[in-house]
């Protein structure tokens, strides 16, 4: 009689380990794709605020179905890109030395903040088309915390006016900086002049009536 072939059954433990590894690889691939999509969105919208989803998918090296698997709508995609840019900007602002004279520190903070806004002008334009203003403001909260802390210290030390709340000074800062970006977009403001205009406007607006001269301060 022919010998019966012995069949081996995979051990349950080995099968479970293989499944875990496969699952981990799938998750890692998904995370890499998501990261690539977000970075490609930042770059694509930075060059053209009207870049299509197809353009972004191609730049990320993925198909449109893969992109839509991570982001159901263009608004979700733009929000993720803006949040990524803001997080990287927050790392830059966190390294600033904001001690000493509050007015000089504020001028330095405005300079760095404007550089970040300027770099993301096209991305911000895309966000303004896709997201409500309240959501854009919410996404800026982490970056605004640096400005808020400095304004509060400046008020305590008499460098900034106290007849208006910090929330209003913060809102004014937001409006002036993003207003400058809008003026550049329509060609009414030279990008190189923007930092000086912003500093001069905000320092004059925030100076106490009996405090420092209402003029610009060179950091």
Automatic annotation (TrEMBL):
DNA-binding region(s), residue ranges: 52-71
In terms of SUPFAM superfamilies, this protein maps to: Homeodomain-like (SSF46689), Tetracyclin repressor-like, C-terminal domain (SSF48498)
Give the Polar residues compositional bias ranges. Answer: 7-17
Kindly list the GO molecular function terms attached to this UniProt entry: DNA-binding transcription factor activity; transcription cis-regulatory region binding
Domain HTH tetR-type residues, every copy: 31-89
Q: Does the keyword Transmembrane helix apply?
A: no
Does Transcription regulation appear among the keywords? Answer: yes
Q: In terms of domain of life, where is this protein from?
A: Bacteria
Q: Which UniProt keywords apply?
A: DNA-binding, Transcription, Transcription regulation
Q: Where is this region: Disordered?
A: 1-25
Q: Which PANTHER family match?
A: HTH-TYPE TRANSCRIPTIONAL REGULATOR BETI (PTHR30055:SF234), HTH-TYPE TRANSCRIPTIONAL REGULATOR RUTR (PTHR30055)
Q: What is this protein called?
A: AcrR family transcriptional regulator
């Amino acid at each position: 009689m022919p010998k019966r072939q012995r069949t081996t059954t995979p051990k349950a433990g080995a099968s479970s380990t293989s499944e875990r590894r496969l699952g981990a690889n799938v998750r890692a691939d998904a995370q890499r794709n998501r990261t690539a999509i977000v970075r490609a969105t930042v770059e694509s919208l930075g060059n053209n605020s009207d870049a299509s989803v197809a353009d972004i998918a191609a730049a990320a090296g993925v198909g449109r179905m893969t992109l839509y698997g991570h982001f159901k709508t263009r608004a979700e995609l733009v929000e993720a890109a803006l949040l990524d840019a803001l997080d990287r900007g927050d790392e830059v602002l966190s390294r600033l030395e904001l001690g000493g004279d509050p007015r000089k520190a504020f001028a330095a903070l405005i300079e760095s903040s404007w550089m970040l806004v300027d770099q993301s002008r096209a991305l911000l334009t895309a966000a303004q088309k896709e997201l409500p203003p309240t959501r854009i403001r919410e996404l800026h909260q982490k970056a605004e915390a640096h400005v808020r802390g400095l304004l509060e210290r400046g008020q305590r030390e008499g460098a900034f006016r106290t007849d208006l709340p910090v929330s209003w000074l913060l809102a004014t800062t937001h409006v002036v900086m993003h207003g400058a970006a809008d003026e550049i977009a329509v060609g009414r403001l030279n990008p190189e002049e923007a930092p000086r205009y912003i500093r001069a406007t905000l320092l004059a607006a925030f100076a106490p009536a009996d405090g420092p001269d209402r003029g610009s301060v060179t950091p």
